[in-house]
Amino acid sequence: MVTSIPPKATETNSPPACSPVDAHVGRQIRVWRILAGKSRTELAAAVGISRQQIQKYETGRNRVSASTLYVIAGALNVTVGQLFDGLPPTKDLGSLFASEEVSDPPSEMRFLLGHLMRLSPRLRGRVAALIHALARDEERSDGAGSGFFTLRNRACR
Length: 157
Known about the structure:
By secondary structure, the protein is mainly α.
C-alpha cells in the first residue's frame, strides 16, 4: 500500500498572505456587525459558515471570497461597497501595499464603539445611518474621499 506524503508548504502551495485591503474589509465587517447588533455566531448562521470563520475574516487572517462578501453584506444590510469605505482610490494603493507600519484603531473609534454598544439595536442602526450620511456628505464636499474609518495595515498570519 502506497501512502502519499502531504506536500510541504512552499511558495507555490502556501496560502497567500492577506493584503492591507483584506485586513481593512475584515475590520469593516466587524464594525458593521457590531453596529447591526449581531454576534459573530448570529452573522455566521445568517451566512452559513462557522463563527470561527467570521472571526478569521474580521481579524484579517483569512480572505473573504467575493460570493461570501456579498452574502455577508446582505446579512449586515449594507452594500458590498460599504465594506470598502475608507480605502484610498485604487490608483493610490501602491503606497498602501508598500507600508509595513502597523497601528491601532484610533482612540475615537474605540470610544464610539464602546458607547454605541450601550444603545439599543434600533438606535445603533439610526446612528450608523447618520454617520454614513455624514461621511458621504463629507466626501462630496471636499472630494478627499477619506472615509469614516481609517485604514490600519495589519500583518496577516
